[in-house]
Amino acid sequence: MRIRIIILQICALLGVFLLPGSLFADVIYLKNGRTIWADQVRENGSHVEYEVGENTFAVPKASVDHIVAGGVPPQYGGGSSSSTATREIPSFSPTDNLSNSSQLTDKIIRDGKVDVDALSSLEQGDPHAAAAGYFIAGKHEFEHGDFPKARTHFDTALRYDAENPTILNYYAALLVKTGEPEQALNYAERAVRIAPNSPDTLDILGYAQYAANRVQNAVATWKRSLELRPDAAIEKYLEKAQKDATVESNFSENESSHFTLRYEGKQTSDAFRHQLISVLESDYDDLVRDLGVAPRSSIAVTLYTNQAFFDVTQAPSWSGAINDGKLRIPVNGLDSITPNLAHVLKHELTHSFINYVSAGHCPHWLNEGIAQAMEPKSLTYGPQLSKLFAAQKEIPFNAMEGSFMGMNGPQATVAYEESLAATDYIIDTYGVSDLQRILQRIGEGSSTEASMRAIIHADYGELETEVGKYLAGKYGS
């Protein structure tokens, strides 16, 4: 209830109005980076129980990072002139060939951490046991968001058992998650060759194909998977891929140094497309300099008519573009790069860089704050926001870790203003280099708060206090 009151007060200060029907929920943040939205949450011994509708579920307490009461569920959440979605890997279960006794798992994972000495001891014995041990270690790090360590363990596991579809599956999933879909294809295709009738291998191959912009191949692969095993999640992925395939069936394709551009030939001129790619390549160079990283794979960019854009993305009406692993840009009626489109392109491209360095784990407020700062964009409601922080009625940052996609326009304005203010504070106070280091730590599996404490010595509460002081210094309170 407190969050609802806060949002109403913010909107009143900014002169905007909420649409009726907003709902609020409790949010369980898991250590593997996933989020659970629930009607009610309670602790019960070694488990956290939560209710969704009339159903009750439970997760081990050891897998929970933290719980926030009164969050905004995704279907009611927020956004602005653009939005981003990180890559989510379809759920799948390891095949039987790497089933291991609990004794081996207990030997490798002690007190929630990988025992490196226990792993090393396996290398002196049976290669299959070594492969299984390193797989267990890699899976543990993967599920806890430490992708660099997971990759090292999977590499070693494959050295002992190079033709194991389970290890190949997880490695492919990891590569998609870290923005390397082309490399993921190699591992996913090998897994399917070894286990052609496994829905698990087909699910991951389809996702790698979709992430690598091979949409028609993904459609065929997921159809085959569903023939073998019904799966509601894969049905949703297939539905999205089929929409893409239908809209883009007559699209043409061009490539540049860092981009693959798809477009409907009649809707854009050669000169406009050349100009757009030139702007994107220039933005790419700027972001490499500013954020200190360069995505390894070519970035897919698709140009749509306005209606096709909303049909495919199902984006809210306020959205000017989407980055869901691909830059999806509506350009109907444009024949040159307008100032607004230039900002949209830089903003959406920034999300690709952020998702790459943070391995898709960057909280939404920071993701959108950095993207706005890189455009560059200035605060629109600085004085009003300063008053809001002075009254200690800002939206807590930990309530803005999830997607803003469901918000109406006024709600989105508030969320984006706070996100930009916090990012501006970090850049102005500590510099872009410390912002890079925060993203790197998040990408290595640390929580947002742990990453901020390590780099700028502030948790969420301290950040809110310092942002308030920063705004008061610029605009007064």
Q: What topology does this entry show?
A:
Blueprint: H1 2-14, E1 25-30, E2 35-38, E3 40-44, E4 47-52, E5 55-60, E6 64-71, E7 83-84, H2 102-108, E8 109-110, E9 113-114, H3 116-122, H4 127-143, H5 147-160, H6 165-177, H7 181-194, H8 199-211, H9 215-228, H10 232-247, E10 252-255, E11 259-263, H11 270-291, E12 299-304, H12 306-313, E13 322-323, E14 327-330, H13 339-357, H14 364-374, H15 382-390, H16 409-430, H17 432-443, H18 448-456, H19 460-475
Parallel strand pairs: 7-13, 11-12, 12-14
Antiparallel strand pairs: 1-2, 1-6, 3-4, 4-5, 8-9, 10-11, 13-14
Helix pairs in contact: 1-15, 4-5, 5-6, 6-7, 6-8, 7-8, 8-9, 9-10, 10-12, 11-13, 13-14, 14-16, 15-19, 16-17, 17-18
Question: Can you characterise this structure?
Answer:
The protein is built from 19 helices and 14 strands. The longest helix has 22 residues, at 270-291. Strand 13 and strand 14 (327-330) form a beta hairpin. 54% of the residues lie in helices and 13% in strands. It is α+β, with helices and mostly antiparallel strands and 477 residues long. The chain is globular and about 65 Å long. Helix 6 packs parallel to helix 8 (199-211). The strands form 4 sheets. It has a 6-stranded mixed beta sheet with strand order 7-13-14-12-11-10. The protein has helices spanning 2-14, 102-108, 116-122, 127-143, 147-160, 165-177, 181-194, 199-211, 215-228, 232-247, 270-291, 306-313, 339-357, 364-374, 382-390, 409-430, 432-443, 448-456, 460-475; strands at 25-30, 35-38, 40-44, 47-52, 55-60, 64-71, 83-84, 109-110, 113-114, 252-255, 259-263, 299-304, 322-323, 327-330.
